[in-house]
Amino acid sequence: MACSLHVAWDDGLTAYDFGPEHPLNPVRVELTMALARGLGVLDAPGVAFTPVEPASDELLKLIHEPAYIEAVKRAGRTLEPDEAHYLGTPDNPVFANMHDAAALVSGASVAAARAVWSGATPHAVNIAGGLHHAMPGHAWGFCVYNDASLAIAWLLEQGAKRVAYVDVDVHHGDGVQAMFYDDPRVMTISLHESPLTLFPGTGRPAETGGPGAEGYSVNVALPAGTDDARWLRAFDAIVPPLLREFQPEVLVTQHGADAHALDPLAHLMLSLDGQRRVYSELHRLAQETAGGRWVLLGGGGYELVQVVPRAWTHLLAEACGAGLDPESATPDEWRRFVRERTDDVPPLYMTDGRTAEFTPFEAGFDPADPVDQAIQATRRAVFPSQGIDPSL
Q1: In which pathway does this enzyme or protein participate (predicted)?
Q2: How far apart are alpha carbons 129 and 147 in whole angstroms?
């Protein structure tokens, strides 16, 4: 069934660029848009493009400190590092016009939120967004401004009383959690690799929210090596019951593709087919629990050719109801474009050939299994605060 999808897009979104040696290369966004066009996803019925403007200083101040905004502007002019604001580090190199590029990404996420909140469309996406690590007063983890938090803060300013944020990036969504840790209007749910083995070292089950917001910060810390079946089991055991209880007015999701087995910066073992199953489940939950109101954002992902473009093209297809056949071949023209832009060998098909099935947690808890241990730790930490029985 076709869905209405607004795509917040401007070619300037690829200007968020830390340089050719940095893992967060904007070519992944460029290749995604080219693949989605080549497969006809962006021409599907109901798909429209939403104009994008940079987030103003006043808008950015909803979540970021004024001194930090000025520091980003200054660093983008002088190209001098600013240690106090973590600008000019290996993770966050300074680049020319950095404020302008980061403000445009943030503006695109707010444009997506506006399209959904206004009723113009049930679903809207900023595929270049999802910069979930940035903190109120400093850059962090490849992220200058936190567009995900800004979109949520904008929704709250418009009067939203319940916004749910689900983050499936392999890294903990620490910046978003930090900004809404004391706010029961926002439920943040992050499924990520354990902080024992991966940046940013946060996201333990015990991080459940501040006073008055206990149980509204939810963290599922998965062990290195978690595959499709175990990851999907964890998702199914945690996310649907919480969203059904919370009943958000809007669902905001962050779709970092770096939980894939080929990602060079992490240690989870999802396939493209497992990720596609996640997108389908989130779409279903948006329809079931949020009246269909769904704001989608990109995120991490550092296998720039084999993973990110295919994963996010499936995400776009799912959101607009285009229903891409995973056995579809990638277009010849796109393969040529990949070789021209990257000198890499392009993938031939839109699948990794996996089935992405799982056994529900309710079928039985294995106390010796580290994924089941992670599931149970999260359920025990947050379910009682939401009035849900954590036991099987």
Answers
A1: Ketone degradation; acetoin degradation
A2: 6
Using omega within 30 degrees of 0 as the cis cutoff, is the peptide bond preceding 184 cis? no
| 64 in active site | no
Each residue's pLDDT, cut to its tens digit, for the chain (392 residues) gives: 568 999 999 999 999 999 999 999 999 999 999 999 999 999 999 999 999 999 999 999 999 999 999 999 999 999 999 999 999 999 999 999 999 999 999 999 999 999 999 999 999 999 999 999 999 999 999 999 999 999 999 999 999 999 999 999 999 999 999 999 999 999 999 999 999 999 999 999 999 999 999 999 999 999 999 999 999 999 999 999 999 999 999 999 999 999 999 999 999 999 999 999 999 999 999 999 999 999 999 999 999 999 999 999 999 999 999 889 999 999 999 999 999 999 999 999 999 999 999 999 999 999 999 999 999 999 999 999 999 999 86
Number of domains in the chain: 1
**DSSP state string for 233-287:** HHHHHHHHHHHHHH--SEEEEE---TTBTT-TT---BB-HHHHHHHHHHHHHHHH
Structure tokens at 371: 């994924």
181 part of a folded domain: yes
Q: Using DSSP, state whether 213 is helix, strand or coil.
A: coil
65 belongs to a structural domain: no
C-alpha distances in Å from residue 344, one per residue of 308, 330, 337, 338: 14, 14, 10, 7
User: With b meaning 16 or more CB within 10 Å and e meaning fewer, what string describes 228-263?
Assistant: bbbbbbbbbbbbebbbeebebbbbbbbbbbbbbbbb
Sign of CA dihedral 132, 129, 325, 287: positive
Within-domain flag for 88: no
In the set 6, 64, 132, 133, the catalytic residue is 133
Length of the chain: 392
Beta-strand (E) ranges in the chain?
Answer: 5-8, 47-50, 123-126, 163-167, 186-193, 217-222, 250-254, 294-297
**Number of Cβ atoms within 10 Å of the Cβ of 98:** 26
Asked if residue 279 belongs to a domain, the reply is: yes
Q: Which domain holds residue 266?
A: 5-58+99-386
Q: Whole-angstrom Cα distance, residue 281 to residue 202?
A: 26
